[in-house]
Each structure stands twice: as structure tokens, then as C-alpha cells.
Design a protein that fits this description.
- There is one protein chain.
- 27% of the residues lie in helices and 30% in strands.
- By secondary structure, it is an alpha+beta fold.
- The chain has one domain (3-74).
- It is globular, with a radius of gyration of 13 Å.
- 16% of the residues are buried.
Amino acid sequence: MPRFYFNVVSEAGTVVDLEGSELATLTHARREAVQDARALMSQAVLRGKDISSRKIHVCDEEGNVLMILHFAETIRNCG
């Protein structure tokens, strides 16, 4: 099973995922990235911060960026 890495990118820099996760496909990796982004935003909101401008670079074992997920894409507008 391939290993995917989820690096969080912001204006301040990049937090590199050194462990990664073994997941079956890039679709599964996207689901994981969405969950990670939502969890990080939830924690930030509780501290009164908006980090919706951040993004996650989903990378393969060689460090190639396979997908970029913007945190803001994970929020559903209800209205």
C-alpha cells in the first residue's frame, strides 16, 4: 500500500509530515486530508483563529506533490 504525506502549508511556512499514512489510493488520501484540515480548523476556531487560507500538499514517498487541498474547500456553505 502506498504511503502519503500531508504537509500543511501557510504563509508562515510548511509543517512537514515525517510519518505519512499508508492508504489504498489518492482518493483515500484526499479524504484523510479533508478530515485533517477540518480538525485543524476546528481547533483554531476554538482559539479564535481563522486558518482557512492554509492548504495541504499531499505528497508521495519521493516528495512529489500529488494534490493540493485548500482548507477553504472543505467548508460547506449553508445558506
